[in-house]
Amino acid sequence: MKVAVVTFPGSNCDYDLYKAVQQVGAEVEFVWHRERGLQRFEAVMLPGGFSYGDYLRAGAIARMSPVMEDVVAFAAAGGPVLGICNGFQILCEAGLLPGALMRNDVLRFRSHDVLLRVERDDTLFTGDYEKGQILRIPIAHGEGNFEADEETLRALEGDGRVVFRYVDANGEATEASNPNGSWHNIAGITNEAGNVLGMMPHPERAMEALLGSTDGVGLFTSLVASLSTTAGGSA
Amino acid sequence: MSQADATVTASPVPPRDGDPAITPEVVADHGLSPEEYERVRTVMGRDPTFTELGVFSAMWSEHCGYKNSKRLLRLLPTKAPWVIQGPGENAGVIDVGDGYALAFKIESHNHPSAVEPYQGAATGVGGILRDIFTMGARPVAVLDSLRFGDLDSGRVRYLFSGVVSGVGDYGNCVGIPNIGGEVVFDRGYEGNPIVNAMCLGLMKHEDLITAVASGDGAPLMAVGARTGRDGIHGATFASEELSEDADESSRPQVQVGDPFTEKLLLEASLELIASGAISGIQDMGAAGITSSASEMAGRGGSGVEIEMSAVPVREAGMTPYEILLSESQERMLVVAEPGQEDEVRRILEKWELEAAVIGRVTDDGKFRVLENGRVVADIPALPLTEGCPTYEREGVESEEIRALREADLGEHLIPEGDLTRSFLLLLGSPNVASKQWIYHQYDTTVRSSTAVRPGGDAGVIRIRGTNRAVAATTDCNGRLVYLEPKTGAMAAVAEAARNLVCVGAVPTAITNNLNFGNPLKAHIYHQLREAVLGMRDACEAFETPVTGGNVSLFNETDGRAIYPTPVIGMVGIIEDVSRITSNSFREAGDDILLLGANTGELGGSEYLYVTAGLVAGQPPSIDLEGERALQQAVLQMNHERLLASAHDCSQGGLASTLAECALGNGEALLGVRAEIDEELRPVVSLFGESHGRVVISCDPNNTAEVLRIARLHEVPARRIGSVTPASEGFSLTVRGGVVSAPVDRLARAFFDAIPSIMDASPTTGP
Amino acid sequence: MSQYRIEVRVKPRPGLLDPQGKAIHHSLNSLGWEGVHDVRVGKAIYIDLDAADEAAALEAAGVMCRKLLANPVTEDFEVTMVGALEGAGS
Questions:
Q1: Mean pLDDT of C69-74
Q2: Which of C27, C36, C39 is best to mutate for the A interface (most A CBs within 10 A)?
Q3: Residue A147 falls in the annotated catalytic set
Q4: Domains plus CATH for chain C?
Q5: Which of C16, C20, C30, C71 would best serve as a mutation to test chain B binding (most B beta carbons within 10 A)?
Q6: Is there a contact between C20 and A64 if contact means CB atoms under 8 Å apart?
Q7: Which of B348, B553, B597, B702 could share a disulfide with B353, CB 3.0–4.6 Å?
Q8: Which member of C15, C23, C71 has the closest CB to residue B251?
């Protein structure tokens, strides 16, 4: 499997993401935001950071980058696309995911570990987790407060497109366990087709016990596993 | 050097239209004494032009010329086999093994932060990052050492929250994890906050590059952001005639940070260095083009010629004076290899940045500036960079401070009321309390290499591809330096070293930031000299040479100086990441041991400040040999994998230290049952801040071996109790007293202290 | 007492670097708006308040700007009257 990690000016988790993909044994390549053509990849990842300094709105300028046309086409063709943190914000700005990420309700940047409950274990990205499993993953963002209109929110819950939710140690989605005011403690969602995942927490920073958690590994192994099972036909 | 002085002389330069005449007032406004101005005239062999005066004023300022500190700084040890680059470059560099080198440095941004806390702190971080990546190293960690007045002032809360946001937003955006530092609140810093930022960068040995301009004819290029009127020397504002656009409100002094551009500049600079297209690179920091160009020429023994009209500017109508002294951020000066200009441009364009040839290296030893081909400044480079007069002054201890030190603390040794009440007060003091409110605003895990995050004794960054890690800490207890400068400075170095050995790192080298008041006052100079002497003794005893740093003097408001605050930024090496040790207790049932002994002083303690508002008394004595033995003992225990935790015992004393070990980051609370019998008053046993102490915990099966190692190093050691489940509470019994409380009560005091102040009370704007 | 709506515009002081404006400027240029030669970003704040008359409302807003809404070190402000509000709680 070959994964593209797209680097925008101001991306700063691209290297971490690259190393995480490498760690699970997949091939990975950086793609500069002005490059075109993603056909040779089987998955595309948009890393965290501050593309264009988060000026104007987080992700608003990056989504105008030339490569984004290809990301949109790649997603439309069913290719798996993962956006983490700023990557999630860019996916929302680009319309690949619904809703928007507003400023944290505490009005401050928040950086610490959070606990996430896995809501779906049947997506391309979560097959190696168990439904209800609790993951320890770091967050680091100032604008992670997921918001959308009523209809969208109903659809997200109704269709089971909420993949990760902020919870406490007992697995309860409480107000205290919600770091940013996100609606229904949403930490990660997919698009309708299920091939585009956006999440605020950083699984690529939870890959080694030395650094505090290995709970992010499953996300990357899940993707590798789901692509290798489908690859038989297409490759 | 004197040869060069004698042979290079200034050519005549006619005055530039519109520049003010040079009067004694103009000279004084530029911060030069009449004697210093005479020295300028001697160096030049004539009167300087206004532009030239501006250049001298910047280069001979304390910030660039170190005129009041240079002679003292020479006393510090700077050499060791592992030092690759000592003082004098953008940053110090040491060998950390496996082919890697570590560049590191600390720098102050006190004054800009007092004027505009957010931008002041942000640009402070930006500057220190550039000092690191101009060495060829990739920044991997930031630490911040901050000091403010007491938080009961709205103005102080405004400064504090602004500085924390500024440090956070800049580092977060560039993507450099913050791994620690310190924050102190004390009325001694009321009018003058201290904002020191430290950065660590890693590189392979072969990637080291220095800031030297050499090679006659080599092109000089300005890269990065454009030059505006930011931060131009205050003196310019005194002159009406300065530029076409004379509206003073249009001449901002405040430097605004742009972390996004910094991130691009960081990537572009590292790519430039790797490309081989350049031979030298330096940040245009304080005093902008002037200092970067003249220092690069000075180091290379060469000259430079710069054309002002070639410098990319942000605003029209800037004079040479303004361009030369602008402190616009996120700019670099590079010396390109001849013929490689287009390669430099190509790399900068990829990162959506500008590069422009603005001059060339010459072999005539001059710092020459042209405006549309006409010479506006022509100065011998070496005397400009090296010829700043340096002073050694008379230092005399302040009688007032001596009296404070010698004050009788008798009445304070008997606690008013309940010891547990004092203990909770101490734990809830912002100086002792958890700093999570601060570092939860800092990205601490970006780059996926942070092995110990803020809240530990020292931050730790692993080196990918190796089994190694580097650790760093910043320390200084200004109260102790105030009461007794020499021991206070020794104590700062010793505390830094203890913090490093607690995480398992071998103390290796330091960078220092000397924050002091006005050195022209005899008692301040006394503090500065004594502190440097103390630092020297400690650095020699611990074999931790000084590889560079920063001096910030004149930190005074209304004639009141800050506490003398020589912040120590110390780095250490961990050879095996599996030995990294936490400062939090691990599990109930472990033994708790105290290494080191209480020497009985209460002077300068947080206890006195919190209970009596007092900064007085004899501060704790320090035994450098004993400290060294303690460091070695802890390292050996670590090496033999005997330790479950290790935590330096400092502010708040033994009681607070044990509580911190039990509370950890708040996620897994534990309890403590401990007892220590010392021939001391209860408050001294519980809250005294003697140096040379470390609290460790270990599996009871390892206790005998730990005690044996302590004996071997002649370090006092004793088992003082056990870690318990949180439900069993916290108790520490001393001779004649006890503190005890439910753990969740300690947790509330400790974790809620700063949030309850900052989230509840409004800040007062500028 | 009447109700007034006031618009406060806070913007970076002339000459001061505006990193956000710079990035947007660059982006607009690269999207093809070559004619854009400067962008500066400020914010608009709308305040509904009770005051004796227009002058008093404007004066109060000016004080708010100096005390809280603008940072005099880095920002300038302009206060304009949007108008009197009809009825209560508009």
A1: 84
A2: C27
A3: no
A4: 2-84 (3.30.1280.10)
A5: C16
A6: no
A7: B348
A8: C15
B255 CB neighbours in chain C (<8 A) are: 17
| A66 in contact with C, Cβ within 8 Å | no
- Residue B464 touches partner A, C-beta closer than 8 Å: yes
C19, C30, C31 member nearest A55 (Cβ): C19
pLDDT by residue (tens digit) across B16-52? Answer: 888 889 999 999 988 899 999 999 999 999 999 999 9
| Confidence band for B253, pLDDT divided at 50, 70 and 90 | low
Residue whose entry in the numeric block shows the structure tokens 């004639």: B559
Active site residue B639: no
pLDDT at B243 over 50: no
pLDDT of residue B763: 61
Q: Supply the pTM of this predicted model.
A: 0.94
- Taking one residue from B and the other from C, the number of pairs with CB-CB distance under 8 angstroms is 52
Q: CA-CA distance, B400 to B383, in Å (whole number)?
A: 41
Match 């490689």 to its residue by tokens: B340
Retrieve residue B59's tokens.
């280069």
Please return the burial class of A86, using the count of CB atoms within 10 Å of its CB with bins 0-12, 13-18 and 19+: buried
Stretch B53-77: mean pLDDT:
90
What are the tokens at B311? Answer: 């410098």
- CA–CA gap between residue B587 and residue B595 (Å, rounded): 20
Contact A164, A215 (CB under 8 A): no
Of the candidates B165, B264, B440, the beta carbon closest to that of A112 is on B440
The average pLDDT across B655-678 equals: 97
The beta-carbon neighbor of B228 closest among C15, C26, C74 is C15
- Is residue B612 within 8 Å of residue B736, measured between CB atoms? no
Task: Domains for chain A: give ranges and CATH numbers.
Answer: 2-230 (3.40.50.880)
ipTM for the whole complex: 0.96
Confidence class of residue C87 from pLDDT cuts 50, 70 and 90? low
Task: Give B301's pLDDT tier (boundaries 50, 70, 90).
Answer: confident
Chain A: closest CA distance from residue B267 (Å): 10
**Contact at CB, A52 and B260, closer than 8 angstroms:** yes
Quick one: which of A233, A211, A229, A213 has its CA closest to A221?
Answer: A229
